[in-house]
């Protein structure tokens, strides 16, 4: 499965369970760790867990290489590592505190430039 197809599968899985503020970032030019990062907010720890589980189940159904999931215990921030796509599902407070989008400034600037044009 191509990384773009995997990214789209992830976004659909998050959208199906009403994930909030889904952001995809193409980080291929910035890191060799992954091709895309997807960040999403859940309304509660229960929804964060459900969103992450839906991503994992959807990826497995499509025979995607499922690497691992971390953070299920507290469910404030769950990371789903699918190799070419890394998914961060967080509660609103956790997402605001860590500001992952701001850590990837070149991607943030590209997003802002696209939205202003």
What do the pLDDT scores average to? 89
- Taking pLDDT < 50 over at least 5 consecutive residues as the criterion, the unreliable ranges are none
The CATH homology group name:
Beta Polymerase, domain 2
Q: Give the SSE order as H and E letters.
A: HEEHEEEHHH
| Count of distinct strands | 5
Percent helix among the residues?
40-55%
Span between termini: 32 Å
Rg over CA atoms: 13 Å
Strand order of the largest sheet: 1-2-5-4-3
Outline the biggest β-sheet: 5 strands, mixed
What's the tally of helices? Answer: 5
The general outline is globular
Subunit arrangement of the protein: single chain
Just give the CATH class. Alpha Beta
Q: What fraction of the residues are assigned to beta strands by DSSP?
A: 15-25%
CATH architecture: 2-Layer Sandwich
CATH topology: Beta Polymerase, domain 2
| Estimated structural class | alpha+beta
Number of domains: 1
Describe the protein in words:
One of its GO terms (biological process) is negative regulation of ribosome biogenesis. Keywords: Cytoplasm, Repressor, Translation regulation. It holds the Pfam family RsfS. This is Ribosomal silencing factor RsfS. GO terms for molecular function: ribosomal large subunit binding. The longest helix has 17 residues, at 45-61. The mean pLDDT is 89. 46% of the residues lie in helices and 23% in strands. It has helices at 3-16, 45-61, 92-98, 100-103, 105-116; strands at residues 20-26, 36-41, 68-70, 77-81, 85-90. The protein has a single domain, classed as Beta Polymerase, domain 2, CATH 3.30.460.10. The radius of gyration is 13 Å and the shape is globular. Helix 1 crosses helix 2. Strand 4 (77-81) and strand 5 (85-90) form a beta hairpin. It is built from five helices and five strands. The protein is of the alpha+beta class and 117 residues long. The chain has a five-stranded mixed beta sheet.
């Amino acid at each position: 499965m191509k990384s773009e197809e995997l990214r789209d599968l992830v976004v659909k899985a998050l959208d199906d369970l009403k994930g909030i503020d889904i952001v995809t970032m193409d980080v291929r030019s910035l890191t060799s760790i992954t091709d895309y990062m997807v960040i999403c907010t859940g309304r509660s720890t229960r929804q964060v867990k459900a969103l992450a589980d839906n991503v994992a189940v959807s990826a497995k159904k499509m025979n995607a290489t499922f690497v691992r999931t971390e953070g299920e215990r507290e469910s404030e921030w769950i990371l789903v590592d699918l190799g070419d796509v890394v998914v961060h599902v967080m509660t609103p407070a956790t997402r605001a505190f860590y500001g992952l989008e701001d850590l990837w400034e070149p991607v943030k600037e590209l997003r802002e430039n696209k939205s202003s044009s």
